[in-house]
Amino acid sequence: MSDRRVISMQLAPAAMIFLGLFGASSLFYFVVSFWSVKLYKLRADFTFANYLKSIEQQWSVLLFTLELSLVIGIVTTILGFVFAYIVRFKAGRHGPLLLFVAIITLFGGYLMKIYAWKTILGNEGVLNTALEALGLIDAPLTFLFYNPGAVIVTLVHFLLPLAILPIYSSMRGITDIEMESARDLGASGWRALSDIVIPRCHTGLIAAFALCFLVSVGDYVTPAFVGGTISMIGSNIQDMFGRALNPPLGAATSFIMLLASFVIVLLVSASIKAWRPR
User: Fold this and answer.
1) What would the mean pLDDT of 71-99 be, rounded to a whole number?
2) Could you write out the DSSP letters of every residue in 179-237?
3) Which of 20, 35, 21 minimizes the C-alpha distance to 252?
4) Which of 236, 253, 234, 254 is nearest to 244 (CA)?
5) What span, in angstroms and rounded, lies between the C-alpha atoms of 65 and 157?
6) Is there a contact between 83 and 101 (Cβ–Cβ < 8 Å)?
7) What values do phi and psi take at 36, rounded to 5?
8) Is 43 helix (H, G, I), strand (E, B) or coil?
9) CA–CA distances in Å: residue 58 to residues 30, 36, 69, 229
10) pLDDT in tens, 138-148
11) Of 33, 65, 38, 37, which Cα lies nearest the Cα of 52?
């Protein structure tokens, strides 16, 4: 039996689960996106009205969501890269401990992290209370919470360990000998970083960005808790499926968001792959 066939057989169970749970449901809702609703009942017809209506009504919200998620993806990937670089090349024997601390935060729970930032940044939170106690402010700083900045901080905190892992995994393929050889040849720290580290870990960077960006685009829990009145596309899609009882419109909006997200991920991935050190 060839190696390729063995690998195919090993991947077959996971592929069947993926196709059954994700592929089949996605195909179903893609079909539903062309249906219509009359008196809160689905009608199995064929129309592009849902896509046109979604673009007309949700374009500004989708654009805002993509911009915010792009910021979150870039910031989280950069921070994850810096942390992974320190763990791999600078921390020495303390590196595994730092990596363990980063990973263990994943067990803290998503909602707990949201409430933690709500406790820190809220009008009666730890930060405002401390500043008032020190006499630095007379009234709570309301701009700290219920805004896009709070959403960015919360999601970056939640997604950072997920960005660190693929980047650190890529960096493990870079040997100490390569870095030492670069230094022996007179390369500065930045030159070694740009010529060796970044090109060699572009796969991890792409994986980290894609994961952080896609999670942020579809998230509707964080904006509801810390975003205040801001509207993101995930919240609107939830309302279409729930309160509005309009699955075809929600499905059409979901696939528009998916297509736009896929294009952005491809563009960022191409930019990372095209990195050429100077």
Assistant:
1) 93
2) HHHHHHTT--HHHHIIIIIHHHTHHHHHHHHHHHHHHHHH--HHHHHHSTT---HHHHH
3) 35
4) 236
5) 18
6) no
7) -130, 170
8) strand
9) 18, 18, 16, 16
10) 888 888 888 99
11) 33
- The whole-number pLDDT of residue 190 equals 79
> What are 124's two structure tokens?
């009666």
Give the closest residue to 216 by CA, choosing from 208, 193, 167.
Answer: 208
pLDDT in tens, 168-220: 999 998 887 888 787 777 777 777 788 888 888 999 999 999 999 999 999 98
109: left (phi over 0), alpha (psi -120 to 50) or beta: left
> Token pair 């904006």 is at which residue?
223
pTM metric for this prediction: 0.90
Cα distance between residue 23 and residue 227, in whole Å = 32
